[in-house]
Design a protein that fits this description.
- By secondary structure, the protein is α+β, with helices and mostly antiparallel strands.
- The chain contains five helices and three strands.
- It has a three-stranded mixed sheet.
- Helix 1 runs antiparallel to helix 2.
- The protein starts with a helix and ends in an 8-residue tail after the last helix.
Length: 151
């Protein structure tokens, strides 16, 4: 690499006197480690955004481009939906994934609500994979403990 060549030239050339180590070596030998650390810093700075994206994928965080409040509101406004709860959105690679519980009053509306939820997820939020659990007339507090009060 350029850094190794540059360090080698400086160690060989010794443009000015830096003194000697206790072992009798020129202090210019430390240039190699210094240039290596400089290149490590440069690599870190140039890959910072990639490292951040990788960590967000590994931690399964909600993608920045998804507004969870808007998504929750859009799900709740679908005709036939009584409430929603236990909504999770994360990203795997470039694919956005969603799971949610959707409460409906009429079991005959189930296929229509499911289609509407899937369509809205793709069209409004570009979610590649969705899983909606349709619940008929259930109170969310009875279904999933710890999720009382979610809409």
């Amino acid at each position: 690499s350029i850094g190794a060549v540059l360090a080698g030239v400086l160690i060989w050339w010794e443009p000015f006197d830096l003194g000697m180590t206790a072992g009798g070596f020129s202090r210019w030998c430390y240039v190699d480690a210094c240039i290596t650390m400089l290149f490590v810093g440069l690599c870190f700075l140039t890959t910072r955004s990639t490292i951040k994206e990788v960590l967000m994928n590994l931690l399964m965080t909600c993608p920045r481009q998804v507004d969870m409040n808007a998504f929750r509101t859009q799900l709740s406004k679908i005709p036939g939906v009584v409430s929603t709860h236990d909504i999770h959105v994360w990203q795997i690679g470039q694919s956005k994934v969603c799971t949610a519980h959707v409460v409906i009053a009429n079991p005959l509306q189930s296929p229509f609500v499911l289609d509407a939820c899937s369509d809205m997820s793709w069209k409004s939020h570009k979610m590649d994979h969705t899983t909606f659990q349709i619940e008929v007339g259930l109170d969310p507090s009875l279904c999933c403990k710890g999720h009382e009060g979610e809409s």
